Amino acid sequence: MLVVSDLSDPFCPWPSEDLVPPVGERRDAWDLFFELLPTLFPEPALGQPVPTAPHAFGPAVHSAYQALKPMGGKVLAFSYGRSTAGIGLLMPRDDPKSLGTAEEPKLRRPGAKSYRDLGEACAEHHISVDYVVMSSDTVDLFTAAEVPRLTCGRVYNWPGFRPSWDGATLHALVMRMVTRETAWEGIGRVRCSEGLSTKRHFGNIGQLRHGTDVRLPVLDSDTAFAVEFDYDGQLDARAYVQSAVLYTTSYGQRRIRVSTTAVGVSTVASTLFRSADCEALLGFACRQACTDLIQQRVSVIRDRLTMTCVDILAAYRKHCTSNPASGQLILPETLKHMPIYTLSMLRGDAFTNEHVSADRRAAARIEINCMPASMSGIHWYPRLYGLHELVGRTECGKPDADGLCTMPPMLRLSMDTIEP
Q1: What is the DSSP secondary-structure string of 79-90?
Q2: Which of the 8 DSSP states describes residue 134?
Q3: Nearest to residue 133, comparing CAs of 110, 154, 113?
Q4: Backbone angles phi, psi at 335, to 5 degrees
Q5: What are the angstrom distances between the C-alpha of 137 and each of 32, 90, 165, 364?
Q6: Distance CA 205, CA 218 (A)
């Protein structure tokens, strides 16, 4: 085991090609490492006090960056507390009294520039960083999470983690992180037909300095980002949007994946609402609100989300219905779930007007930024199943005609459906 005692200027004590050898060439070395890992950091015996020491989370992430700098890769950083030693020192900044005041957005901005610099350096060298935080104390994730935010990473905030209860879930999470389909060393660009132009990108991505390309150090199958288009001219009967990603597969093959979508153009409002995608609209609105979270008060963002929903439904009532009765609620079929989704967003950790810890709000912001559109509805309105419905249903738990697991009937997320 190599130990670097300099926490203010951590470095890689061994050549990277020897410290992080390819798995295919040195599988025996990796197997030996994982066998020895539990013995290197044993748990204290029952009844013995747990040793306390400064938490050097910042230097550990810097050291991982130094080790992977020549080759790129993925870092899974596990933390049990706030970084209190060496480079990347974090300070507790959570203040419940600031909610609703002019000081509120300032506490959600990064408190130290070192983590943003580290995130940009990791993205430049194709390194992505995920955090798994298991601390019940304040960590200042709005500062530390700059690294995952700029490197297509994630933050899993797990306060009150207990191995006996949460160990199986953590094991499943790590297995998903290391086995899902992943693209490495990616660079992406979104282009569109004449009359449209890309305006902004939303997500845990870093934009290149020289143009509209975005850095995608690691792009996995559970990650998505959003693009805002600007209408600046007359469109033809069809508009085209094309996304291109240059990446390396897990087998070392350099590839280009191009996806082109043709969408119809119409001046008829009813046609627009008939083709609307509720999950896509929801995902875009959430990402836009997360971007504004560090600049504006939560109350302003909540009002904007509410008015966005109201304006969309009011436009449908005005332009797509004839002589509606006063007070009658009229919803388009494609957007009929938008009000309940909006109310769920306002109750979530990211946008609630009640006090939640700054770390919970920061972790929710990072999660929303990378969430695929297909998961937006499930995230804001989770599925509820009654275990008592399994009695007598022999088909539940077995694959159906499509190979999917047969589930019991879903229940509404209401107190009325929860039996005592």
Answers
A1: ESS---SSTT--
A2: -
A3: 154
A4: -120, 25
A5: 35, 12, 19, 17
A6: 10
- Give the pLDDT band of residue 386 (cuts 50, 70, 90): confident
Whether 361 contacts 350, CB under 8 Å: yes
Q: Which residues contact 181 (CB under 8 A, 6 or more apart)?
A: 220, 221
Mean of the per-residue pLDDT values of the chain: 86
Over residues 124-155, the pLDDT tens digits come to 999 999 999 988 888 889 999 999 999 999 99
CA–CA distance, 272 with 239 (Å, rounded to integer): 14
Residue with tokens 């990211």: 350
Query: Could you give the 3-state DSSP secondary structure of residue 264?
Result: strand
With both helix axes pointing from N to C terminus, report the angle between 278-292 and 298-320 in degrees, rounded to the nearest 10: 150
pLDDT digits (tens, 9 = 90+) for 168-177: 999 999 999 9
Q: State the pLDDT at residue 137.
A: 84
Residue 161 to residue 266: CA distance in whole angstroms:
52
Q: Of 170, 280, 181, 172, whose CA–CA distance to 222 is shortest?
A: 181
Helix (H) or strand (E) holding 415: none
Residue 390 confidence (pLDDT) above 80: no
- According to the model, what pLDDT value does residue 4 have? 79
- Spatial distance between the Cα atoms of 362 and 155, rounded to a whole number of angstroms: 9
Q: Are 351 and 345 in contact (CB under 8 A)?
A: yes
State residue 16's pLDDT score: 74
